[in-house]
Amino acid sequence: MNSGSADSPLPADAWLALDQQLCFALYSASLAMTKRYRPLLDALGLTYPQYLVMLVLWERDGQGVGELGERLSLDSGTLTPLLRRLEEAGLLERRRSRDDERRVTVVLSTAGQALKARAGEIPRQIAASTGCSLDELAALRGQLARLRAALLQSPPGP
């Protein structure tokens, strides 16, 4: 007799197996992805989180710190040190608004803009290393975006 839920062919104990955990599949894939990025980003002098900040700024320069945080799902306590290190590296500038001193705008420096050309091959190299077609990668991104949205909308707790 199956002791799992009505919509599951797995027995209840099988749900606790590590290989059945979606969270572990996502976590281990994320670790593998970050490991694959490391040598490519080392050549640019960037960490993976710094690369994500640069991607957002290459899309649209001159964003506020709050906008960057929202786009990257990072709080200011995590984002501020990233921005400080990128500024120290000469890749961006943080500018206080003249109208509202609480508002800080992040602007790419000339060096930060130039780095975009050097980073241009990274997405192709990563895509090639996955062994997936571009259509498969697009479908996977879509599934992960839907998963993230569903998780953010679901109520917390049991």
Automatic annotation (TrEMBL):
Transmembrane segments: none annotated. Gene3D superfamilies: Winged helix-like DNA-binding domain superfamily/Winged helix DNA-binding domain. It is found in: Cytoplasm. SMART domains: HTH_MARR. Keywords: Cytoplasm, DNA-binding, Transcription, Transcription regulation. It holds the Pfam family Staph_reg_Sar_Rot. One of its GO terms (biological process) is response to stress. The keyword Cytoplasm applies. One of its GO terms (cellular component) is cytoplasm. Residues 19-149 form the HTH marR-type domain. GO terms for molecular function: DNA binding; DNA-binding transcription factor activity. InterPro entries: HTH_MarR-typ, MarR/SlyA-like, Transc_reg_Sar_Rot_HTH, WH-like_DNA-bd_sf, WH_DNA-bd_sf. This is MarR family transcriptional regulator. It comes from Sphaerotilus sulfidivorans.
